[in-house]
Amino acid sequence: MQRRCKFLPPFSAGLLLASVLTGIALPSLHSAPTPKAAYSAQQVGVTAAEGIVLNGILYRPTAKPRPAAILLVHGYGGNFYSGYFPHLAEAAAEHGYTSLALNMRDHDTGPKISDFADNEADIAAGVEYLHKQGHSRLVLLGQSMGTNRVLYYQAATGDPSIAATVLVAGPGNLFDWNAWQFGRKNAQATVDEALAMQASGREKQLMLVDLGPLGKALYTPRYLLSLRGPNAQSDPYRNIQKVADPILILQGTADKLVEPGTAERLRRAAGHSARVDLIEVDGADHGFKKQEGVLTQRILTWLKEVLP
């Protein structure tokens, strides 16, 4: 068998020998130029009411940005970099969408001392930041309890710049969620304890709260009552009735943290929206682990339909 040997010209052979002797990798003489990244990611600090700084990451496409941008709002115990947010934001940037993943003031799992209504100011700060980036139309996406946050923001403000709403794995009414976990009697007993502490001037004192599959947490009565007390403003079924822009509801069929039927109940309650779509993802859990690609594809396909 004959082998053909291709001899290098002296200059190229010298380069090759030099690279072997020095251990330095040399670029190919015929290498293609390095492609530009499809997006940039920058950590930012957004100042909300009372001077509270909310950390986040801004993902921006490097070419042909769309007019609409996405604000990603996490759920209970979450933050701007958890779960599928990075995957979704990176893919969205590749399709021209700027995204801001932003902490709420009660992010992560430390003691909870704020009021649910404070989320309005936090989301407003994120909205204003994206407006200053040149985006006049916005998409609000809420994950888990973040769905309650974004619906409350719209019900409270009627913000006309919100062009679409995406609700992922929403837990529904938070008192009902606790009643589903522990029974209505036990759920009411926790609310009554918080009301008694509030009446005795201990509204800012921490109390230990059992969250079932989420473990135990420290809440102030102020925080607990703002979520599930008699005057709570967090009920998504009431707030979604005031949302007029298109709504996408996504729910995993393997989600053990959400009571069955919650997504359908949300869909039925959205009576004033221009368009309401419910998508169930087979096998997806509460955080859509290992289903990030499916979730992202469904969201981006829908956004291109409602925001061409």
Tell me briefly what this model is.
This protein has 308 residues and is of the alpha/beta class. Helix content is 36%, strand content 20%.
Throw out a few tags for this protein.
single chain; 36% helix; 8-stranded mixed β-sheet; 10 helices; alpha/beta; 308 residues; disordered N terminus; Rossmann fold; 2 domains
Within the CATH hierarchy, at the fold level, what is the topology of the largest domain? Rossmann fold
Helix content: 25-40%
* Euclidean distance between termini CA atoms: 62 Å
Task: Provide mean pLDDT, rounded.
Answer: 90
Biggest β-sheet, characterized?
8 strands, mixed
What is the top-level CATH class of the largest domain?
Answer: Alpha Beta
Strand percentage? 15-25%
What is the annotated CATH architecture of the largest domain?
3-Layer(aba) Sandwich
* Main sheet: strand order: 1-2-4-3-5-6-9-10
**Name of the CATH homologous superfamily of the largest domain:** Alpha/Beta hydrolase fold, catalytic domain
H/E element sequence: HEEEHEHEHEHHEEHHEHEH
Number of helical regions: 10
